[in-house]
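We treat protein structure as text, and this decision shapes the records that our systems exchange. Because each token names a local backbone shape, the row as a whole describes the fold. An entry from our holdings is shown next, in its original layout:
>
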Amino acid sequence: MYQGECLCGAVKYAVNEVIDTLECCHCLKCRKAHASAFAMGTTITRANFSLHSGAEHLTEFESSAGKLRVFCNQCGAHIYAYRPREPLNLRLRPALLNTDLSKFKIKHIFTANRLCL
């Protein structure tokens, strides 16, 4: 349904699930992890995510207790995050999808930390 890849193209994947809403997270951890005013994410079912290439380039970092962020170790692009205690879900970083993101609904979360409109 959707295809995605990291900045350098080493990691390629597909998502076989309808994505309806993207969340823009304004929390401090997400801002730091993405070096941006917010991070985009959407929760998908792990079973609907398939890695096509680049498994050897995936690196995990535990950014807070029980939350692991997965990056391409070549270009640094953040692919997804997950919590081992929630094994059925992944928190996908949709900015890497090869699709027009303007068609999705947008929801802002942790807006008390919001830096911009």
Residues 2-113 form a domain with the Metal Binding Protein, Guanine Nucleotide Exchange Factor; Chain A fold (CATH 2.170.150.70). The chain is about 5% helix and 45% strand. The longest strand covers residues 39-45. The chain has a mean pLDDT of 92.
